[in-house]
Design goal:
The complex is a heterodimer of chains A (233) and B (258). With 233 residues, chain A is an alpha/beta fold. Chain A is built from seven helices and nine strands, in the order E-E-E-H-E-E-H-E-H-H-H-E-H-E-H-E. The chains are: A alpha/beta (233), B alpha/beta (258).
């Protein structure tokens, strides 16, 4: 079953502050992802992997093409959807594990992780318990749970971020280098969590620079260099 | 989120004599939605906020509001009494300068209690209990209830103003640079508090700010204004991560990184 279908996406940035120059990034980006499958975007830095991920999540607008996401029994185009529909899709259908944690002042790590469940109506105690389970699994020392993550190390912040991204049950999950600043033991934990999501039928689209991790999680690699714009602007 | 908007704004235009305040503004606001209006000084964002909150009459256009009885009313055609009821109960307005939204020479408790009395609450003990509860929610110590806001710090005054506005359970809150004149550390605390209250209470809010970090943290959607016109609008992270208009690109690229 197709969970995410990307059709003919194209993106060009127009830099108005640089005399209006055009920077074509990608064109004809087309691929499908089935439920339970993890597809990894491949290609060197600057090929447009992050841009594709951001277009699929709606952080970047698209010049043309569609991002079809299964929701309520039909395929909904996120690329042309109004802001409310995008927010609904993000609540119910598509999740995103970003590379960096955007920290909110004063909010504890446990609440940062529990928040996605709380805003979806889960009881606060239950959400916190689940958040604790996620953080334990990722080996974040319990003494850090009550502290705001702003002062945590890069690896600790990333684990908080992963816990927050994995705690919900989105049928489609985007992964932007979730293992970048982790040690080998924690990378293995994340690989295990991705495998579990696959068994639960989650479709994943990710960027992984670590070759070992990529080899373990990827069912298929989509080479982004194939989407390079043909005509120079 | 509910499927029916709370507010529908159509072609709202405000001139001061021949000078343009804001022109042809159109949007809908849904329950639970926070809309940020950003732009530089003189872009028309405060004029728009004051017009939306019925403090100014528009030159043309309308703002339809879904009342508690589900009837749709153009707020500029309400009677004075109806409008007063709306602004005192169903709406809140958080001013940049707390002194504009508070009565500085009556106690903190009375500042909160006054809005309750405006909706017909008469039981003194109950009003005081509610005021105490709200002071707690905005993190003001209970033993300050009888002090006047004159003796409060800027951050405390702003939190008191927020409590005064939210105590009547409004459905729509207007905020004009709510973290404006505050220290960065105080701003962070206030932002976190606002974010939490807006989420818990399911409020709709329209927030005017020139601070894009405030917009990012608080709002779902944003509108960018320049010269009285809305030049770009959309999902907050789309506008901030992929700005299209030259002016929006300038705004986003002007943020200092720390």
């Amino acid at each position: 079953m197709t969970a995410l279908s990307v059709r003919n996406l194209a993106k060009t940035f127009t830099m108005h502050l640089r005399g209006g120059i055009s920077l074509p990034v990608v064109e004809n980006v087309t691929f499908d992802i089935n439920a339970g499958e993890c597809v990894v975007l491949g290609g060197p830095s600057g090929a447009g992997k992050s841009s594709i991920l951001k277009m699929v999540y709606g952080n970047y607008g698209v010049d043309s093409g569609e991002v079809l996401i299964a929701h309520d029994g039909k395929m909904v185009d996120l690329a042309s959807a109004d802001p409310r529909t995008v927010l609904t899709l993000r609540r119910d259908a598509i999740g995103y594990v970003s590379q960096f944690l955007r920290t909110v002042p004063r909010v504890s790590a446990l609440d940062v992780v529990a928040e996605p469940l709380v805003v979806r109506g889960t009881d606060k105690d239950e959400a916190q318990q689940k958040a604790g389970e996620m953080l334990s699994r990722l080996n974040l020392p319990e003494r850090l749970w009550s502290l705001p993550p702003a002062t945590f190390s890069g690896g600790e912040q990333q684990r908080v971020n992963i816990a927050r991204g994995f705690i919900t049950h989105h049928p489609v999950l985007l992964l932007d280098e979730p293992t970048a600043s982790l040690d080998a033991a924690n990378r293995a934990v994340v690989v295990g969590m991705i495998a579990q999501k696959k068994r639960e039928g989650v479709a994943m689209l990710g960027i992984f620079h670590d070759e070992e991790v990529r080899a373990e999680v990827a069912d298929r690699i989509v080479d982004v260099t194939g989407f390079a714009p043909k005509v120079a602007a | 989120m509910s499927d029916e908007p709370l507010l529908r704004v159509k072609n709202l235009t405000k001139y001061y004599g021949s000078r343009l305040g804001c022109a042809d503004v159109n949007f809908e606001l849904y329950p639970g939605e926070v809309l940020a209006i950003v732009g530089e000084s003189g872009s028309g964002k405060t004029t728009l906020l004051n017009t939306l909150s019925a403090n100014l009459e528009p030159s043309s256009g309308e703002a339809l509001y879904r009342m508690r009885d589900e009837s749709w009313r153009n707020i500029y055609e309400l009677s004075e009494a109806e409008r007063r009821f709306l602004t005192r109960t169903d709406w809140g307005f958080v001013h940049q300068n707390p002194a504009d939204g508070l009565r500085m020479t009556v106690s903190a408790g009375a500042n909160v209690g006054e809005r309750l009395m405006a909706v017909g609450d008469r039981h003194y003990g109950k009003i005081r209990d509610t005021a105490l509860d709200w002071l707690g929610r905005v993190e003001i110590a209970a033993d300050r209830i009888d002090d006047q806001p004159r003796s409060f710090s800027g951050g405390m005054r702003q939190r008191l103003q927020i409590a005064r506005n939210l105590v009547t359970g409004p459905r729509l809150v207007f905020m004009d640079e709510p973290t404006g004149g505050l220290d960065v550390s105080v701003q962070a605390r206030l932002l976190d508090l606002l974010r939490q209250l807006v989420g818990e209470l399911g409020l709709s809010a329209i927030v005017v700010t020139h601070d894009l970090a405030v917009a990012r943290l608080l709002s779902h959607r944003m509108m960018v204004m320049k010269g009285g016109h809305v030049i770009e609008a959309g999902l907050t992270d789309r506008v901030l991560d992929d700005p299209r208009e030259p002016y929006t690109q300038l705004l986003v690229s002007s943020i200092l990184q720390v």
